Batch of 4 targets.
Target 1
Amino acid sequence: MSQTPRALVAGMKAELRRLRRSRLLLALVLVQAVTFILLVTLFGLTGAFAPTIVVNNDHGPQAQILINALQNDHHSFSLTFMDNATMAKQLVVKGDYVALIVIPAGFSQGIAAGNTVPVSVFIDNINTDMTSDIERAVPSAILSFGEVNGFGGISTTVAETDLYPHDTSFIDYMVASALVLDTLIIAGTLSALSVAEEFESKTAKMLAVSPVHPLVPLVGRIMATAAVSAGAIAATVFIALFSYGIMPDFPLEMLSILVFCVVIFSCVGAALGAIMKKSLPVAMLVLGIALPLFLFSGSYEPQRFDGNLIWLASHFSPEYYAVGLMEHAVFNLTVTPEPLMILALTLVGFGAGALALARFFSGRGFL
Amino acid sequence: MLEVGADPIQFSDVHCSISGREILKGITLRVMRGEIMGILGRNGAGKTTLLSLISGLRSQGSGTITVLGASLPSHEAEFRRRMGFVLQEDALYQELTVLENLEFSASLYEVQQARERILEVLDVLGLSDRENQVVSTLSGGLKRRTAIARAFLHDPDLFIIDEPTLGVDADARHAVWAYLRLLKSRKKTVVVATNYLDEALALCDRVAVLETGRILAVEEPRELVRRTGSCIDVECDEPTAQKIASGLIEVKQVIRAEVTLSGVSLFLARGARPDEVMGQFSRYGSIEGFRLRAPDLSEVFKSFGQRP
């Protein structure tokens, strides 16, 4: 084996041995990977499926149709059924539930007779966000209820033409892009820490006086952190598949993109580590920039939600390109105007640029 | 390649500035093959910067430096392979074992039959029973020895060591010294930066005295002591120490007397005969013992007309 591959393998071996003795760090990396994917989807999860009590005092066929309409209202209600309205109201007051819907006795009979039957809704309006969700969802359910019953006055027809052959749940959409965020945070932090520690412990100086360029063993170390990062990301993929129930349209493409992202983001982390040269600040930096860049990258939805300025700015973030690739692999969506090949090539450019920066800042002039 | 008979290190009017501050001011120095050259100076004198120039970690502002036949700065791998460097800091991978640190270094320097060579170096430095110990759990002295083992692993021609015994205990200090003498016996060239005169005396063939970026003198350590004078540490009780200090300061051979916790230290003038001074102790009371030693660094600088 010639000198460069030998130094590369030595760096990788040394880093793997170091990580093997840092079990707490490895455990925390895994926890971090999982908590970040939960954190990102928490927004969608808390805004959906408002916990709502239904007290059905009717038990007739029309009441059941209304309940079905409530249950089928997309991402609106998580229904719990109770018999006692007073007790149910106390649970809403206590904060265990957001709303209480009481279907009165004689509801089915009244509807069948063509009468207007009031359905009472009691809402915990502690914040307008949840209140508005309920206020929008109840009429929506009633509309569905009316359509089932064929009420002429409220029947509607929508001439809908879909861009995609399937709908994508908002939470699922976010989980796919959150995998990218997770990859940046895990791979970026681990490689940044690894490189920064070389400078903190002064071992970078020993590398600098050795016959190989310091970047060679550093790349070996980054390869080791990338392997560990890939393991942690595999855990989040497992959660995405089996907890969120996401079935990717192109599974192999998705896995390839994740591995690709681990490599590119490891290079980005290495550059930051070489520039900062301090482990604590660089860890904070990776966390600090990953989230804003993620939000700017259109990760929450394909629309340019804040106008073109932020969308243009997002082009400076590797997450923008990675999210574009990931949404295609998982849901066959096209969320950027740039074609997939351009997205991939731009990410390669980010990786190469990051390595060039790492090489420059780990040179003998920066020790 | 190194020319036969050429000095391994040649500095000619070398200046070096860091952040706009001139650290080395016109250094001219030659280090001969197979000698141990000491760079003696106080903290901030420029010792580490001088070693950084030799190792290629820094570049000079002006002047010429030739090391092992290569004009610096040189980034040739072959040049680096012929040099071993021990930093002031140990610069070891703390989470790796002694053996793993050396294996890593052996890979960078392409050490042939690495395993055998590592075991040999560990044995010479008395680290054989520590090979599987994680570095972070080693004492300061053992870490220092590990750093030296790493630098010598690839059998360099030139060995540079910054503060070899900084922060190590007496046993480790003697082990390091013994190892450096072993290098000399193998005709290796060694440059040692230190601020301990006794270390320079014990190790070096010649010493370059460095003060605020200038070389004040390059001479043999014993000549340095002769120029400076020696020191006698006397062990006695405090009243006797006071009497000796006030009495012998009047004697022309004694230039300074300091009462210490264990007695009194007498600094002798250049050319003074210690036996003549010691013969007078009995006039002031009984003493428990005495030791003749080299003067401290402040006396050396005083002898060059510098501030103590």
Note: The two ends of chain A are 29 Å apart (CA to CA).
Target 2
Amino acid sequence: MHGMGVSGGRRTQLLRGVLDLCLLAVMGEGPAYGYEMTKRLGERGLSIVGEGSIYPLLGRLERDGLVDTHRAASNGGPPRKYYRLSREGQLALTSGVREWQCTRDAVDGVLGVANTEVSL
Amino acid sequence: MSQFVDECRREWSRLGMPEAEANEMASDLEADLAEARADGVSPEEVLGNGYFDPKSFAASWAMARGVVSSTPRDRSTIRIRSLLLAFSALVGAVVAGLGLLILVRPRFGSQAMAVPVARRFSRPVPSILVNPHQFLFAGQGSAIDPLGWVLLIAGLTGLVVILWVWRPWSSHGGGTGFDQNIGMPSFL
């Protein structure tokens, strides 16, 4: 139980650091509204069940000028707020991906050689 | 309108959010939840932990968008802390001043004070700075001098502690339920 709790907490911490990049990345595929982005994340295996919500994060990205927004009709539904990458957002995504790759490689260098077998 | 969205609306209204912004956010949220429901997706999968705490979710979203700077509870906490710090600083200053007054009291009555008082107009620097021993130790042996020192040191220590507390607190804005280091709502 304890191990599961620690593991869940770590996942949340890891997500906190990269979820904004993930949102920018899925927005890079084309403008999307809130739920559509959740679906795109899910299709790539990134579920946020039991974690936080993307809405406050979208608000911050908008406030920071990393995304542009416009309202448009969705498929047969009511008008929705669509988010798309701004130029600043594209730059942030580029530098963020580079940072992530460096960090991931460094962590892999350490954890990749760790002995993960538990002797009984 | 779903109960969740309704509770969010109430929280936004309580926070003083502009009606147009609140309408837009509620409409988007309602549409997203309806589409998720049609897809067989639960609200928890869309809203995460925020689904179980609509007030925090609504406040975090509003603050992240910059529509409200902080919740009324945050503002109230900041006001109370500021008043407490100001009052503590005042008490510290009064205590230190009282201690200083006890230590320099011979200036107002003893013969030893005649010289510095007579030169006060010809010397731009206060005499207490030039000859502090004449002021601070003129009454050596008095029974209440230790009290003066205690008050002075306690008051000055208190002021330093208040400054120590105030600086990091004021630079962090007192906390808003938003994780500034990683830019994510703290409830994530």
Note: The interface with chain A takes residues 24, 27-29, 31-36, 39, 44-51, 57, 60-66, 179, 182-185, 187-188 of chain B (CB under 8 Å).
Target 3
Amino acid sequence: MSLHATTSQTVGPFFEIGFSWLYRDNLAGPVVSGERLEISGRILDGDGKPVPDGIVEIWQANSYGKYAHPDDPQEKPVERGFTGYGRVPTDEEGRFRFATIKPGRVPGPDGKPQAPHIAVSVFTRGLLRRLTTRIYFPDEHGNTEDFALKLVDAGRRGTLIARKIDGRPGMLEWDVILQGPGETVFFDV
Amino acid sequence: MKKIPGYRRVYAGTQPPHLHPPYVSSLKRAPLQALVPLPHTLSEITGPVFGTEIGDVKACDLTRQHPGEPLGERIVVSGRVLDEDSRPVPHTLVEIWQANAAGRYLHSRDQHNAPLDPNFTGCGHARTDAEGRYRFVTIRPGEYPWGNHYNAWRPAHIHFSLFGPAFATRLVTQMYFPGDPLIPYDTIFNCTDDENARNRLISLFDWDTTVPLQAMGYRFDIVLSGRESTPMESRPHGENS
């Protein structure tokens, strides 16, 4: 190996200038298959204060568990109108929101299927490097056998699983707590 | 199924810690729990692919996005996007954003008492070519004060955002200019331990890309994580976290 990856630097407070042209809060066009979901939440700091200058990027498979990417070797359909990428900023209350479909299962390191999940990058002023985490889904029997959830202390796994909202089918809540009590599990990717 | 290798982990000291107390904004936003090392799966070795979104040629020339010319010193910023094996990263999205020549961002939260330029937005994007090359025409951004500590000033810089081929290769960084006297004092520049890694964020003045009578050239090569040589299925947990 001759080179090392370039050093990361913070996005700072003004990333909107560079990022807003690619904001995408609805990942699934009207003909895309799968269970429709809206996921919202807040980014909170170590004092529980909202982070108004943060951004969440989403990467996920389609409902068949296929990534729209040339390195996905699975014999599963790619869907027009679904790239699997989303990018949403937080508002003054630290809230973000996006609409998508529930991803299908993709293989894990042992070849066994992973539980459905969304890969997430978090950038904010104050973060020198992005944080990476995952969103899992409630009432998903595959969660108990998921290799990545099993890497996490049982007491912290809940931070990776979105919550249902009473009386609001198809709506899920998932917060990003950057620091302190209830701190979200972040992965070293 | 075919086994596909994952991407390499951070080389010690070449990336900043999450908590860097001199950078005050990191104090309440850096996680305090250890990150959980995640072996790379299909979810990490794939990532968004961009193509047709980037049709606008004006997007890579920040001096031609308005009816008039922006104020300031025109520059060409170009370079290559490579992986850690020096292989070009072709057809990958590069996004940039920056302050204007007076050191002011076109953003509601920027309260710096310096003029906005009606002919400058400060936003650009481009896709690398088959050899991993990118090129932007812009103006040299100004230095500006910020509130991190008494009399704090940011060196002139351009923000860069790259995707590379996978979720694992995503990178956001900043490019600096050679000879800027503020660089040694900048808490954000200094957040990384490894001096060589820090200094690679400073672009090089480049005669080859300098356009006579038009614009000075600065060269900034960017390196994204390279492929592991071993298949991702055999990666031991917790490697080089």
Note: Chain B touches chain A through 89 residues (CB under 8 Å).
Target 4
Amino acid sequence: MAEVNLRKVIKRYDEVEAVRGIDLDIADHEFVVLVGPSGCGKSTTLRMIAGLEDISGGDILIGGDVVNDVPPKDRDIAMVFQNYALYPHMTVAENMSFGLRLKRYPKAEIKSRIDEAARMLDIVELVDRKPKQLSGGQRQRVAMGRAIVRNPKVFLFDEPLSNLDAKLRVQMRIEIKKVHQKVRTTTVYVTHDQVEAMTLADRVVVMNHGRIEQIGTPTELYHHPATRFVASFIGSPAMNFIPCQLEDAAGKPQVRISDKIAFPLPAARAARYQKIPRTDKLLLGIRPEHITEASAHSEPGVESFDAVLDVTEPMGMETLIYFTLQGAQVCGRVNPNAGAQDGAPLRLAVDLNNMHLLNEVTGAVL
Amino acid sequence: MTTLTIDKAGPTRKTKYGSMSRDRAWALRWSYFFLVIFAVFFLTPPIYMLITSLKTSAEISAATNPWWVFHPTLENYIGLLTSNQFLRFFWNSAIVSIFVVSITMLISVPAAFALSRMRFWGSTVLGTGVFLTYLIPETLLFIPLFKMFAVIGDVTGIQLINRWYVLLIIYPTLTVPFCTWIMIGYFASIPKELDEAALIDGASWFQTLTRIFIPVALPGLIAATIFAFTVSWAQFLYPLVFTTSTDQLVMPVGIITTLIKGDVFNWGQIMTGALLGAAPPLIIYAFLMDYYIAGLTAGATKG
């Protein structure tokens, strides 16, 4: 087991820079998820750690050693691929032991490791089958087993759940988490699914256009996003961004959304946004769960307003509502009994204690 | 009410199935029609060979119905199978084919692996180039090749012309490009992650080839093997040009040169020899047919 460090790592394909100088320190035992839209460089980064791609600049360290020119087999890593990449002509046991057999481990050792991994992954009765005879979820378990038996310094997962159906994905997500709790191997996990990132990671690395947008624990990213990209990428449904401006009314700052709607800022926020020039074009960032139906009694920082709903989506435990504010589509989450209907007006409340203000031009969260 | 609707739906559905099976029946009838035509067309020559091989020379030249054997005899078979010359031809053909298949596989499998997986400078051009060489007809090549071997013989003193082993050098020029091409197509259909997984598991390129690629691409490998065997077994022009002494001849040439004496055609033995010569590929095809088809189609769609 070991830490992984990336220092100014660059990947260039001809003229295109896929990864533009990223720094990342992954601690021993840590589970780090690289997340971002397709083409953001997350898979390339993972493949560079694995040694499957050369790096164009910078250094990659595994366990403190620079491995830039070390071939994959000598990096002591194991990788789980999106399409499982099981050897089709070998049984499950042979698949799992292939790496060990190449390294000429004693037979008894190989057997005990396979048994242990198979027990951990609940595939004991499958060890004599060929990959063709397994379901998608079982194949994914075998792929993980192949990684576990090697007992490597680092696990690398490249979108391992993308080929599974939604239900199985949730199940395997929990399975992966359990395995990590048992073996505690340093793990780098790539996904484009922010839910996977949030649920699995000790720390999430959000990437965009070959750069790291933000690194943080799932809660940090959710509650304190650094940029508009992170704010909109993490969380589902995504955060709302409503064009607004700061103004002072009777000495107290408030966000003006339209001629009719302006919300006074809660005291803590007012102090934080004191220095922002009042002429700046801003965005009010607010998560859907902080836009709800108005309640009878008022709370500090919760302001109510009227809206005409465009569309409602009853989800059972809640109803998602969509309405337009200053040209922006806004999503809110209301109680299914709040009486939300398509095209009908509804009195809503916004919780400004959880608001964000963003610079519309730079996208920075202020 | 419900039962009534179901009853109504029943017959309508049946008619639908009926029309589908009628379409199918017609399609089948047409397929059989054409298949029978082709079968007749392609099976007539071998049947004629078989009939003729069972006749005596006298009966062959007699003005009787050529499609019937009136006095069947095995004398042609006995004559050929007890002739040392014919057995020599058979033996030469077998040795040449086995060596050529081995040489071809030893060259084209690693070549295909390198061309399809190890991205190196010019690999695409080289891959196309390999295939293009296959398109040059042997009728254009045999004169320059003959000249080359003659020069080599003059300069080094190594006599290649009129030796059966010269065919081991010449035949691969036909088999290697095509087999490489088949294998490139087949290897290309193996997902990239498989060799990456092997690479991470600690396999060298050579181990990846022998322990992952060759077993996975076995159908393609068998298809390529059959092809190489057929080509070297049936090749006629090159051995005709490059070998002349009777002890160096392979079967196709041997039959023609020894059984046609001047303008006397020993038809009975020629037909028998041709039939016996066609047997080995036929037996191999019969056993490996499924693999052959699987191999060719896989190469076709992905290559």
Note: Chain B has 14 helices and two strands.
